[in-house]
């Protein structure tokens, strides 16, 4: 890759009024890591620190026009997919992936908000599995999302990983990062990356005791996509993103709500 070339990452996700998740935090993450972010929102959300209040899905024709406007003009090196508002968005996105032969696609399987609001209905989850799982390079479900996909009681235990992964591969995935943030380990968090060869690699970090967990799935998935755009392989991208996520959580635990007043002069993005 040429030194004067800036890698590009397209984030396709919901818009967060609180700016701590969705396309807003994706942009901050992508730019922080040295790539350029393009954005197509799947929905407008009304949310704050207490949770998601309402969701307005982007009209399908508008969503398609936004994708076309970006993709007919710019070479995209990686794609991060987050919140998918409905069946129409999913189907339209699958067609665009094929048309433009998009690569390095990371799907954060967002189905329920952290405040408990359903963001996809069961029939829409089925469409996501059918249309997107075979087309993306990696899915990044947390433990509740794994159980929502499989109807299982997976808890993140090492002995559960192999049978859980076998069921996920039966759904047509190419690779999966089983996130362990909701796991039982008290002092550490272990994520399991399983690639198409079924090779399993563990990515472990110390658990950070913090309440600043809003948007962590968005940060991790957009970081992975960015590192793929930068030319790293999947294992290295996950490893670098795991470290980036840990550093973010350590920093966020010391931030105060009014930190922006003190940091407005900083050149680097703050999150």
Textual characterization of the structure:
This protein has a single domain, classed as UDP-N-acetylmuramoyl-L-alanine:D-glutamate ligase (3-Layer(aba) Sandwich). Helices cover 39% and strands 20% of the residues. With 271 residues, the chain is an alpha/beta fold. It starts with 7 loop residues before the first strand and ends in an 8-residue tail after the last helix. It is globular and about 45 Å long. It has a six-stranded mixed sheet.
Note the topology.
Blueprint: E1 8-16, H1 22-32, E2 36-48, E3 51-57, H2 60-71, E4 78-81, H3 87-100, E5 105-107, H4 122-131, E6 138-139, H5 143-150, H6 158-169, E7 176-178, E8 188-194, E9 200-206, H7 216-229, H8 234-252, H9 259-263
Helix pairs in contact: 1-7, 2-3, 3-4, 7-8
Sheet with the most strands, sense and barrel status: 6 strands, mixed
What is the total domain count?
Answer: 1
Helix/strand-derived category reads alpha/beta
Individual helix count: 9
The CATH superfamily turns out to be Ribokinase
Helical content band: 25-40%
Summarize the structure.
By secondary structure, the chain is α/β, with parallel strands linked by helices.
């Amino acid at each position: 890759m040429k030194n004067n070339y800036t890698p590009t990452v397209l984030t396709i996700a919901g818009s967060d009024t609180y700016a701590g998740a969705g396309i807003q935090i994706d942009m901050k993450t992508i730019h922080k890591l040295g790539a350029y972010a393009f954005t197509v929102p799947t929905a407008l959300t009304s949310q704050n620190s207490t949770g998601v209040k309402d969701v307005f899905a982007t009209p399908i024709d508008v969503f398609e026009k936004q994708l076309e406007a970006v993709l007919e003009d710019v070479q995209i090196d990686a794609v991060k997919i987050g919140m998918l508002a409905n069946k129409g968005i999913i189907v339209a996105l699958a067609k665009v992936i094929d048309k433009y032969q998009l690569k390095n696609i990371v799907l954060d399987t967002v189905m329920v908000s952290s405040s408990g609001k359903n963001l996809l209905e069961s029939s829409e989850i089925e469409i996501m599995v059918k249309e997107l799982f075979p087309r993306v390079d990696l899915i990044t479900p947390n433990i509740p999302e794994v159980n929502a996909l499989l109807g299982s009681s997976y808890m993140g235990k090492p002995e559960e990983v192999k049978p859980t992964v076998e069921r996920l591969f039966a759904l047509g995935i190419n690779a999966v990062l089983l996130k362990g943030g909701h796991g039982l380990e008290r002092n550490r968090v272990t994520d399991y990356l399983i690639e198409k060869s079924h090779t399993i690699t563990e990515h472990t970090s110390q658990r950070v005791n913090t309440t600043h967990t809003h948007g962590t799935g968005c940060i991790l998935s957009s970081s992975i996509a960015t590192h793929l755009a930068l030319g790293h392989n999947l294992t290295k991208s996950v490893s670098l993103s795991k470290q980036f996520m840990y550093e973010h959580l350590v920093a966020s635990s010391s931030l105060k709500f009014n930190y922006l007043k003190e940091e407005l002069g900083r050149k680097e993005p703050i999150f």
